[in-house]
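Archive transcription. Copying these from loose printouts into the bound notebook so they stop getting lost. Printout 1 of 2:
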Amino acid sequence: MEQDMEKFNFERNLKNWLICVTVFITVTMVINGLIALIGWEGDETRFTEGPNRLPPGWIIGLVWTILFIGMASAFWLLASSTEITSRRKAGEVLAFAIFCLSYPIFTMGFSVHFLIFCGNLLCIVWSSYLTGVLRDISRPASALMVLPAIWVCYATWALITPAG
């Protein structure tokens, strides 16, 4: 009986995780599709003379899709907990994910350099903050939340460093 209960809980949890990831990914794909449709891939963003080290827009979109899978997983880990502190932190992870989704909009299609740098800095700081506060609550969620900071640090470096 206990094995059946564990299997049932595992299947229920897996189903809930898949639903959570599917929602996050669907929203991300819709946003990425709109960005591509509008032409806001960021390929024209220049902080350097000549080309920079950023990968093509489709790679950036793919990386963010993977990062959103991580954020969805962190959200799910926290939201499915019975502890109130974990659930509150799930809300913070969700707010961070919404911030990341809105980045192309508030940078006006990656065209306002000041907003790009401010957005990158806020993303790095917020992701790092979540990594720290989640460490004692859920180490897996903490590990997943450090990934956006690492990516945005790289992307910021790649944006301002000339290729070649």
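Printout 2 of 2:
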Amino acid sequence: MIQKFKRPVVWIPVVLVLFSGILAFQVKNDKLFALAKNIDIFATLIRELDSYYVDEINPDELVTIGINAMLEELDPYTEFIPEEESDDFRMLTTGEYAGVGALIGNRGGGNMILMPYTGFPAQNAGLKIADFIIKIDSIDVARKSTSEVSELLKGPANTSVKVTVKRNTDTLQFSLIRKKISLKNVPFYGKLDDKTGYIKLADFTTNASSEVRNALVALKAQGADRLILDLRDNPGGLLNEAVEIVNLFIPKGKEVVKTIGKLQNVNYTYKTTKTPIDKEIPLVVLINERSASAAEIVAGALQDYDRAVLVGRKSFGKGLVQTTIPLTYNAQAKITTAKYYIPSGRCIQAIDYAQSRENGSVTTVPDSLRKAFKTANGRVVLDGAGIEPDEKVSEITYAPISYTLVAGNHIFDFATQYFYKNKSISNPMTFQITDQDYEDFKKFLIGKDYDYTTYTEKSLSDLEKYVEKEPYYEEIKAQMEAIKAKVNHSKENDVDTHKKEIRKILSEEIVSRYYFQEGMIEAGLDEDPAVELAKSFLNTSSKYIKTLTASAK
């Protein structure tokens, strides 16, 4: 009886394993069959459409539309990159292309230079902000799109191109030699005072970590013994660059990020491999709702190790990793292959795309489902909705008139006019337009279209739409009109009422004409609430240390 009892004990697990293996094989086969079947149906449909549809069709265009529609069902980051877009994709990941080195855009019905990059052909040749591009070589580009003009300016390095522009009333031609353009990940760094260094990291393309390293070393050599790393508005990029940047501040052998996906080959733990530049320097990292991906890895890892105080607003919440997969005919696919987890063990992905696919709506992780984790010092941090700063800073809100003056290009146009009337200005951090300059701006606005609706006017208008439907509307109509008359804005008065903020916006735009992107960033740091708060942490060691201890949260 004992022997008879033992035999099933031995064989039942074997039978179960065999059965589960057969079942798994069957499921896999069913999936492969469904995949092959649907690919065959899709190919047959395209072929029959090409044969029978009443009008001529473009198979390439239809297939691309179909592919993009399919990928949109997954998440915003999984993309198809056809061969003709591979150069643009390469530029996004490496920050490199061959061209003249200028940002162009459509203003006033034409394409103009918005920013020549320092040290590259456009700036070296003398092209200026607000130059309208009217011809490239012999091609009239007055009616071409911005993307078409951009492509004409690009080309193999060391080839020549002639650019004809309209500057005020003059028509000027410039001869340029295209060069390999490497866009800076660190467009500006400098000292904010005798002791405080500042690094603006705008992107995570190739060499981002080297640029941050060089900036850090230079600032320390200049006497900086505390640092602000600005990751605001940084959309992220290359994961390995994020790991290298964290390594500048924490010791060798520490985990920075772990990626976990469906396939074993995407599961990987990234650790620091080098001796840090400075593991003691007091550090504040600035983040906001547009800090994403690699920027969140840097901010989150430094927070998890209690190596930096985070100041600003909650980050975007992109905890997904994309891998570029080569396809046939030189096409590529950027596919979400994993989620990433920072040292405390948390994933900061804010949107559950799997759940969104099921119910058709974008679903964020509810607060009730966010899990608690702990930093190295025992501070509580949460997963599932971006990186929370240690100290919050409210977003700056501008008056409607300021938005309107910027959107209508009135700030831009006045700055250009100012530039051609004034040969030089003081340094970016100290420059401010004078009261007389502001009066000149007010005169400049005379006859210009810059109408807008204030927040109060919009609220009253919305209220009136509802009240009009009520039976007592006629009784209160006169009072409504009286209130509207009292709050009705005066454009001229608003220019004076909001002089301080408009003046600052004007000053920053004018600075860009003389000092380009670097100067505009530096000028924007003056009276920046997040920067001021960061400096207060760095200038008060007790406040800085207390924030990084377990009792801080």
